[in-house]
Amino acid sequence: MSVHAPTHRAVLGLRENAAQFTLLVAVNALVGGMVGQQQTVLPLLATEEFGLTGYTFIFTYVAAFGITKAAANYFAGTWSDRFGRKPVLLVGWLFAIPVPLMLIAAPNWWWVVAANVLLGINQGLTWSTTVVMKIDLVGPARRGMAMGLNEAAGYGAVAVSSLLAGYLADQYGLRPAPFLLGLSYTAIALLLSGFLIRETRDHARLEASQHTPRADGRHDHLHSDLTNRQIAVQTSFTEPALSSASQAGLVNNLNFGLAWGLFPLLFATADLTAGQIGVLFALYPGVWGAGQLITGALSDRIGRKHLITSGMSLQAAALMLIAASDSFTGWAAGTVLLGAGTAMVYPTLLAVIGDVAHPSWRGRAVGIYRVWRDSGYAVGAILGGIIADLMGLHAAVWGAAVVSAASALAVAVRMYETHPRPRGVSTEKAPRTS
């Protein structure tokens, strides 16, 4: 995307764009709700209605979701820079329409897998686009807060929908009641996205026109005219902060993918009801979602790196507690801590990408980062399934704990601080340039 003056008046800032920002928060809550409607229910559907027993096979739907979501993230970033953000958002929601219908009607497990392929495309296109649009609107001073609000809405909705789906499954059966939530979410999102959401690419152009390099010269090689290949290489491997964020994001979602497929089965070993399992599963994204309301803004005040290393370390400790427990109480404590650790990491990693990427290729950088991050769903599901089949459910959780600790160490060694701010100094009056 070439840098030029915006075609209409655009102003950067959270307060200045409050109405559009709020609409985008609502849309991203609906995006998260599409995932939450099935997380509690599908593992139980696999065992109780389709008679599946091998953990690796059961987790195929999580792997299918992760692979397609990762690929969709790449196209979301590229297309949003090329064609604009709103068209990508609308196309993403069109892919959601068949998902709940297929889950309701599924005569075999492969229908469930196919529905999750479509859901992965929906999630990649819509969630990536709402991230980019919010970063566009707020400018550099409140980037962490913007990501905290975005991710809080999405994962808070995952928690609420998981809880609702568990309740509906308890009261009315595994099908169709829980999946009626998804039909409602899709209809509301299409109305909001089609009629009320506005294009934000001009805000990115405005920020690009005001862009000033870092005083330390660290980003001088990350100029505005990088090719797609150069952006992919920098984000994946060579730029220390971008590539560190990509690996940490992958490990974070490895934990989520493993939790998605494995936790309901692990919790069911204690003869818990579907409602109790729904509560346990809701605690993780619930704390994750609510915590980001604090951690996103906190990263604007104290910086990004220490929140990421501390959050990955806390996730490792939480997984150890879950692996060592065999009761509701221990699992509840572990999922709360896992949610807290994830809250420290999730919006902060996105803020790192926004800090480092030039506004002219920010959408593509976000897309590449999310390719790596959401590949973690598939890695977690497949690796967790294999370990669970060979060594048991608890061993799979122990494996994820070790990987999380290694990720924290890698970030501590390689990542530099991307958003230096004096500790305790508010960014309220920070200039709208980076």
TrEMBL record:
Domain Major facilitator superfamily (MFS) profile: 21-423
Topological type in the membrane: Multi-pass membrane protein
Protein name: MFS family permease
Species classification: Bacteria, Bacillati, Actinomycetota, Actinomycetes, Mycobacteriales
Pfam families in UniProt: MFS_1
PANTHER family in the cross-refs: INTEGRAL MEMBRANE TRANSPORT PROTEIN, RESISTANCE PROTEIN MDTM, PUTATIVE-RELATED-RELATED
Keywords associated with the record: Cell membrane, Membrane, Transmembrane, Transmembrane helix, Transport
Cited CDD domains: MFS_MdtG_SLC18_like
Residue spans crossing the bilayer: 18-35, 55-76, 88-105, 111-132, 152-169, 175-197, 250-268, 274-295, 307-325, 331-354, 375-391, 397-416
InterPro entries xref list: MFS (IPR011701), MFS_dom (IPR020846), MFS_trans_sf (IPR036259), MFS_Transporters (IPR050171), Sugar_transporter_CS (IPR005829)
Gene Ontology annotations for the cellular component aspect, listed alphabetically: plasma membrane
SUPFAM superfamilies reported in the protein's UniProt record: MFS general substrate transporter
Record GO terms (molecular function): transmembrane transporter activity
Keyword presence, Membrane: yes
Protein's cellular compartments: Cell membrane
Cell membrane in keyword set: yes
Gene3D superfamilies, per database record: MFS general substrate transporter like domains
